[in-house]
Amino acid sequence: MAERAPLDPRIPVTVLTGFLGAGKTTLLNRLAAHPDMAGTALLINEFGAVGIDQHLVQRVGETMVLLESGCVCCTVRGDLVEALEALHDKLARRQIPEVHRVVIETTGLADPVPVVWTLMEQRFVAARFRCDGVLTLLDTRLGADQLDRQEEARRQVAMADRILLTKADLADRSARERIDTRLAALNPSAPRLAVSHGEIEPGRILGVGLYAPGSRPAEVERWMAETEAATREGTTPPSPHGAGPAAESFTCFFDRPVPWRGFAVAMGEILNDYGTRLLRVKGLMNVAGLGAPVVVQCVEHVAYPPVRLPRWPADGKRFDMRGRLVFISRDLPSAAMDDIRRRLADLPDDTAALRAAATAPLLPTRCWLGMRMPTQGRSTFETGGWHVQPLKLGARRDMAASAKGTHSLS
Ligand SMILES: Nc1nc2c(ncn2[C@@H]2O[C@H](COP(=O)(O)OP(=O)(O)OP(=O)(O)O)[C@@H](O)[C@H]2O)c(=O)[nH]1
């Protein structure tokens, strides 16, 4: 793998982007296991008040910087610069092992434009780091619809130096053809690579060379100029979040373990009813009868096979075993949010759940029901166990303020 351009002592930075659920964490976990990834620092950023990803990402090298709460593109000129300054400072003081490369994983809702601008133009950052390419992941099955509906997804693709088409195993021929047509219009020059379950040689995607605005679609020049002007004037650049309804995040905590089948059926019905507005659902669940947590993942109406973790992660000093489910939605009425909370707070027992599943062959969570789990009776927990924390992307200043001081460099 090419590590540095000749005579350029700056640390290369790869920006890993892609819409919600495209497969970024999966790719990072596969890369982390590769020997070529030694000496890589990882910056991850997650949208939603309750971070799940940091529990799911294996550490790359020794260094992980977590940009919590908020979206890296909205807080970029603060948080990202601070995180890179902190990394540089710790390297200079030899407090952490040598770093040869940085990978920034943005949130699925991030606009990569200000991230790239910061890497190329912010004085402190550009003197010490260099942008080594934007990798954009795109879900082969859902990607064409996401490009039609989500401005963030369009910008991520337009900015790409490489496009990684994920989940080909779930896509039929017509989905692949639709993606090809959309990409030919949005970013014909970026090479496309198929990736299944995150499997790819790091040398094919890292060290792809300096970001070259000239080879990108014309609108990229305009976005970069807008970011430059906004930075000079101390204002916020126009962002894709402003183009439509705000994305919102709400988190549900479960004070008691859930009956697995009741939970699976309730979630399947929720995805059937609200799937296209539920951009992403991700959770660590405490399942009745199990001593370890189960990770559940959904993207729109697609539910992925759950994964059992070996143990509960420690949240700071406290060992918090409450289940937590993070929803990221767009254009979801508040009545629908209440309905989701109500359904999850009153889960059917396993017998009732299996009866309901028998009459719903198209339940998206059918693969969850096939998992071997202890059988439980009726769940007794109450709505009082819920905490819902809505976040709006529009509230950038609040998020920037709440994100301050939350970096952890471990
Ligand atoms: N079948 C299949 N599933 C995949 C593939 N890649 C990822 N997944 C699944 O897709 C789901 C979402 O993947 P993640 O890697 O968490 O996606 P992400 O882009 O990090 O998600 P956000 O951080 O929420 O934006 C997980 O359940 C993965 O196991 C693939 O190639 N094939």
Provide an overview of this structure.
With 410 residues, this protein is an alpha/beta fold. Helix content is 35%, strand content 20%. It folds into two domains: 11-242 and 396-409, 3-Layer(aba) Sandwich (Rossmann fold); 247-392, Hypothetical Protein Yjia, Chain: A,domain 2 (2-Layer Sandwich). It contains 15 helices and 15 strands. Strand 9 (278-285) and strand 10 form a beta hairpin. The protein starts with 10 loop residues before the first strand and ends with a strand. The structure holds guanosine-5'-triphosphate.
Overall shape: it is: globular
Q: What is the tally of helical segments?
A: 15
Global mean pLDDT: 79
Summarize the main sheet: 8 strands, mixed
Key phrases:
410 residues; Hypothetical Protein Yjia, Chain: A,domain 2; alpha/beta; 15 helices; globular; seven-stranded antiparallel beta sheet; single chain; binds guanosine-5'-triphosphate; Rossmann fold; eight-stranded mixed beta sheet
Provide the fold topology.
Blueprint: E1 11-18, H1 24-32, E2 40-45, H2 53-56, E3 63-67, H3 76-92, E4 101-105, H4 112-121, H5 123-128, E5 129-139, H6 143-149, H7 151-158, E6 162-166, H8 173-186, E7 192-195, H9 202-205, H10 218-233, E8 247-254, H11 260-274, E9 278-285, E10 294-299, E11 302-303, E12 307-308, E13 323-330, H12 334-345, H13 350-358, H14 366-369, E14 391-392, H15 396-403, E15 408-409
Parallel strand pairs: 1-4, 1-5, 2-3, 2-4, 5-6, 6-7
Antiparallel strand pairs: 3-15, 8-13, 8-14, 9-10, 9-13, 10-11, 10-12
This protein binds guanosine-5'-triphosphate.
